[in-house]
Write a structure and sequence with these properties.
With 161 residues, the protein is mainly β. The protein has two helices and 17 strands.
């Protein structure tokens, strides 16, 4: 039985294009390793602004890579903000937590006071409810605002534990 760890799966990105002289000191984003050496690849152009002029100059950038999957059996996406069987889909939750990972569907669980598929719509009246103690302001099925327990918490009298 073939598993994800049997194949080398890499995520690849490039650093910003800049002067080749300055590029030697540039590092990749956190979690990524430089796959290019010295001043990087000479495959881009950058712009230098001088007064009202804009010069297009040849530049360099680094190729950066990291493992696509993580975990002891490659059962996790290496990036916490990706989901799907190939970890290529990117989460777009603004004020919430994404259902990420290999089995995730990218849906968002909104933080208190936000609503919508991307948790990008503020719920104006949530401040009045003042949800506390492991509760968040959410919209009920009837459309009314209410304080509900956060995931993995149970309601015990008036608190969530």
């Amino acid at each position: 039985v073939k598993n994800r760890c049997d194949e080398k799966n890499l995520l690849t990105t490039k650093t910003e294009c800049m002067s080749c002289t300055l590029n030697a000191a540039v590092n990749c984003s956190e979690g990524y390793l430089k796959a290019s050496h010295g001043s990087g690849q000479r495959d881009c152009r950058y712009f230098l602004e001088i007064r009202s002029y804009s010069l297009s100059l040849p530049g360099c950038r680094h190729l950066c890579t990291k493992e696509k999957f993580g975990g002891t059996n490659c059962e996790k996406c290496a990036d916490d903000d990706t989901y799907g069987p190939d970890c290529r889909s990117v989460c777009d939750c603004v004020h919430g937590i994404c259902n990420s990972g290999i089995n995730g569907d990218g849906s968002c669980l909104c933080f208190s006071g936000y609503n919508g598929p991307k948790c990008d719509q503020p719920l104006a009246d949530c401040a009045v409810l003042n949800c506390r103690g492991n509760k968040r302001c959410t919209m009920s099925s009837s459309g009314a605002l209410e304080c509900k327990c956060l995931p993995n918490y149970e309601e015990k009298s008036s608190t969530c534990e």
